[in-house]
């Protein structure tokens, strides 16, 4: 109580990728157990911009740096804050933790705990005792004899009161302890005999028990949200409650004490601190290669990932891998099995997002700023469907540092929409093949060319840069993406951290945009991809912006792959276009003039990219670099594919170790570090500006 003092001061608060960090004035009200913030100190007498109840909250210093920390409220709301230095952070964290503990304990004293139900496990003997011997007819689940206690007949289950959430947390802790005992019992079994620690049923039990704990945590958070809504008023009609990322940190017991058959990187990943994408300053010393589009040929490769193939056969390996991971673990350094890989690099996947170059070029043909923003949103939403190869969720190759991918697209100028009513073309596959052949006899003046280049600019953390341009239309897009993947139980989440910039030089406009998160769901059965999160598109010059929401499947109700969004004029806050539908099926665009347009993404024409033959590619170009892995996967030879993949990764580690010993920084080939991002070394906006300056000097 001596330290229960009210403190206040300025902290930086993280809002989102677009707005970033903002200074706000924070006040810790110990008496009320509240953390409040205001725009500045002068507005302290006004209503707070935000308030967090600290009872039941978790205060966590961040591993990112010595200044950042998070406040996770029991309602599920989170503040990510940053102090000026480590000392100030410690001051705030200690005061917040004292206040949180005081008010959490006060709730517990005012509400006696419910009578807890017990879940018993049969007592386990040693690995060699008769009680552990498995009879042929005895399955793994019945062996552990998980007991279920029934309530007496005639008695109704009492309705859980909101104030009993603290008791629920205690019961969750008990469940965690029992799950820990279950894992320990399995791992104490011998590695050979009738019942082993690698038994497929037991591996399934370990993996699903982890998912069950994750599910219980989600349900607990739903109760917390309902509690918070009851304090503010009832939930509005039609509200759906979505699954949340686990906020309650489970005990660190998802480690195997024996049978460590997987690479050491798996166990090491848990203790590795999450790096920030900071690279050594380095000038471009490797000479960039100018790719001649005339050397590129239309791509005939079509590796659709619609077959489970080896994934079905290697189910026990997946179970073993999952049993070694922990919820929330960063998978950046985890070596995943080869058979879950799709036959292309991540850099090529970014290129496949450009498979509708006609819609891309049509953006700059918009007659007004409003129409150009709408066209960009239409193009953006149609790019994700073709970027996925098939319905089965498989993982692209992790690019090797220094790896590059080049390609281009050609399309007749007549295929690009010039008026607002013809944004989308719908050629059949046979028509598309005819169009491609027709291009061969056309001169350069008859078609547009879109060039693409991507490079892996960093390995830890994994950052990719990619750039595309259409010089004839004076438009280009530059982006950098840092992929952060985490294990979420029965799914894997990938956050795409970074930003893209579309430049329309004919109009002097720049559009910033971000990317949604991706989730691989049902990784034990038939894995599938889901997109989630909110992305923003902004054009500072015109004042138009777009907000797009990729909706994940709610806890109950709702549809799969749903997306909604709107385009508005910021100055007047007028919505000029609304969009809804599924990002991999049909989209509906409703415009302010009353018109409505439906787009079936499965029927949109796809322009095949043009790629140089393998013999003309450099040793670090994606397809040549991974050619032996790809060929082995096509042949179904998983062991051979794993050998080739391991050789590439080992070479990368050796080169990285050598650079560390000689203190030699890595030098990129096509992209340069500028601020927090990566920019193509010769973007169109620089070359066009230089040409205009030279022309003015000549005149």
UniProtKB/TrEMBL annotation:
It comes from the Eukaryota. One of its GO terms (cellular component) is Golgi apparatus. GO terms for molecular function: sterol binding. Pfam families: Oxysterol_BP, PH. It is found in: Endomembrane system; Endosome; Golgi apparatus. Residues 117-136 have a biased composition (Polar residues). Residues 4-101 form the PH domain. GO terms for biological process: lipid transport. Coiled coil: none annotated. Residues 104-136, 638-658 are annotated as: Disordered. Keywords: Acetylation, Endosome, Golgi apparatus, Lipid transport, Lipid-binding, Membrane, Transport. Heterodimer with OSBPL9. Plays a role in regulating ADIPOQ and FABP4 levels in differentiating adipocytes and is also involved in regulation of adipocyte triglyceride storage. Weakly binds 25-hydroxycholesterol. Interacts with OSBPL9 to function as lipid transfer proteins. Belongs to the OSBP family. This is Oxysterol-binding protein.
